[in-house]
Amino acid sequence: MLFDVLLAQLLAQAGALPAPLPAPKPASACPPDMVLVEGTHHENVQRICTSYRGGHCYRFFPGLFAVEPRATPVRACMDRHEWPNRAGALPVVMLRFVEAEKECAAAGKRLCTEFEWELACEGPSALPFPYGYAQDAAACNVGKPYRGISERRLASDDPAVRAAETQRLWQGEPSGSYPACVSPYGVMDLVGNVEEWVATSRPEWPHRSSLKGGYWSKPWAGCRGTNESHGPMFRFYEIGFRCCKDAGPPT
Predict the structure, then answer these.
(1) Is 66 among the domain residues?
(2) Which residues form a coiled coil (predicted)?
(3) Residue 152 lies in a domain
(4) Is residue 19 assigned to a domain?
């Protein structure tokens, strides 16, 4: 043993020992275009509203909330941007829930769940809006004037007719156009721009498909509130989605 120690010292002094290899970097839990959403989701959050108008709350008492069961642990990777998950790209709309599922599956992902989406939007402090406690009309794309739609044209069997009506109604913005519209986890445009398909988490909803986040003409949109009215075959001019996947093991 003493001989081995002396030999190592002599070799080191002579420069014969190779330089130590750098420590390997820990593997990231998520791909570069996704962010890790990890924490506890509470099914019900109660807050004190301090500015209520038109049937909606626009401001909540900061820092004060109560949570109720059920509590669900969440650990998932979520697309940073709305599909196609590229900064500066227009979000894709007019896809059915089942079509959005296929797009995510083709990318090795899945649709986000309702609980994953809510936690990603609220952060660990259960914020009512991704950026804080009071609605900020300039933070996200939520203040565009409503344009009347033609249900007949949107439901047409002719793709060109549907596309023309969608284009007439379109008021979405490229992903990332609103830098302040970012959640505590770093997810962009969860509120406003386009409504997003999610996989239903609450058993009382009638369909396995639900919608979150409102769209460009819904100024009261926040992190809570689920549109549970539409089944998997529904599609609409302001509905998009983003993908999730299970996160890698903790490093």
Answers:
(1) yes
(2) none
(3) yes
(4) no
Count of domains in the chain?
1
pTM of the predicted model, to two decimals?
A: 0.88
CATH number reported for the structural domain that contains residue 206 in this entry: 3.90.1580
Q: What is the pLDDT of residues 130-157, one digit of tens each?
A: 999 999 999 999 999 999 999 999 999 9
Nearest CA-CA partner of 241 in 31, 96, 33: 96
- CA 156/CA 94 separation, integer angstroms: 12
DSSP 11: H
CA 220 to chain CA centroid, nearest Å: 18
Q: What is the pLDDT of residues 87-137, one digit of tens each?
A: 999 999 999 999 999 999 999 999 999 999 999 999 999 999 999 999 999
Please tell me the distance from the alpha carbon of residue 242 to that of residue 116, in angstroms, as a whole number: 12
List the domain range (segments joined by +) for residue 108: 34-246
**Residue 177 token pair:** 């156009």
Quote the CA–CA distance of 251 and 249 in Å, as a whole number.
6
Is position 89 within any domain?
yes
Q: How far is 33 from 110, CA to CA, in rounded Å?
A: 15
